[in-house]
Amino acid sequence: MKKFINKKYFTLSILLSCLSGLELPFGTWSYSEIFSLITEKNIPNTIRMVAVITIAQILLVIIKYLNTRVLNRNIACFNQNVREFLMKSNFIEISENNVSKQISFLSNDLNLIEENYLKQLFQLISMIVTIVGTSIVAVGNSFLLTLVFISFAIFSSIIPKFFSKKTAQQSNNWSTSTGTYITFMSDFLKNIRTVLNYNALDTFIKKGQKIITQSTENKRLRDNTIAKSNFWVNIFVYSFDFLPIGIGIIMVIKGMLTLASFVAVQYSSTWIINSFYSINSCRNQMSSAKPMIDKLLSFKP
After folding, report:
1. Label partner for 45 (CA 20 to 30 A): which of 79, 94, 252, 300?
2. Torsion, CA 163, CA 169, CA 171, CA 174, rounded to 10
């Protein structure tokens, strides 16, 4: 994949993705800071903090916008480099019957790589930075309570490993069946007059129905596997969602923790858990693109 990537823009995207990942840690800190300001009852300090938080939020919005722009540039460079490479590779050494399959690869598989791999890769980087940043905020307020919250979140990240292989296989099946469908439709439309002249329309419709059924079924199975993985993650996460919150409330009641610190940990941990969920979704999407990437890398100059 390295040969298809513009190193300058790729590096810049990594940097901006990391900075974008700080949005939630900053939001967590600023939210908990509200309770500290209320406790202090210091109006000048409140005005200063509100000004600082407002300026920082505007900067984060600008960074997020720049991150999207640079990501779009990365995808454009990837598109340019891949398509130029394919024109110079053994991708073009095909028989006339396989033209539609190669066109399917250009229109479907490459798009899947862009959406399910490249975009998810930078999203994954942002989520990792988010987890690290919010963890620092949470640990700074209470290590023990943060450990309780994080312990529940870590277990949820293991679940997608049981589905990744099956997701990749079903994505490959869907890609193959989609190529078959496009080949069939291309041949069918090219020869439609001949089909009608020989009264063979019913035969082609029956054949087409089988191919369409296979293609849509493979896509349904792939999407169901991804949904099943996300379902079990959700079941685990939300079944135990209030258990660590209950522990935190007890710690506040017993005077082991201030209310502001509890809010910081609870709010941070909520985003940490959501970030783990987002990482799981990213990994599922990236697994679905792996067969297409393997196919792309199989072509030689």
Report:
1. 252
2. -140
Exposure of 117 by Cβ count < 10 A (0-12 exposed, 13-18 middle, 19+ buried)?
buried
165 closest CA partner among 111, 237, 222: 222
Q: What is the pTM of this model?
A: 0.66
Cα–Cα distance between 299 and 301 in angstroms, integer?
7
What angle, 0 to 180 degrees and rounded to 10, lies between the N-to-C axes of helices 143-156 and 119-141?
A: 150
DSSP SS3 for 299: coil
| pLDDT tops 80 at residue 8 | yes
Give residue 155's pLDDT: 66
User: How many helices (H) and strands (E) are present in the chain, helices listed first?
Assistant: 12, 0
Query: Right CATH number for 2-298 from 2.115.10.20, 3.30.1050.10, 1.20.1560.10, 2.40.30.10?
Result: 1.20.1560.10
Confidence of residue 65 (pLDDT cuts 50, 70, 90): very high
Q: In sequence order, what DSSP letters do the residues of 24-90 get, joined into one string?
A: HHHHHHHHHHHHHHHHHT-HHHHHHHHHHHHHHHHHHHHHHHHHHHHHHHHHHHHHHHHHHHHHTSG
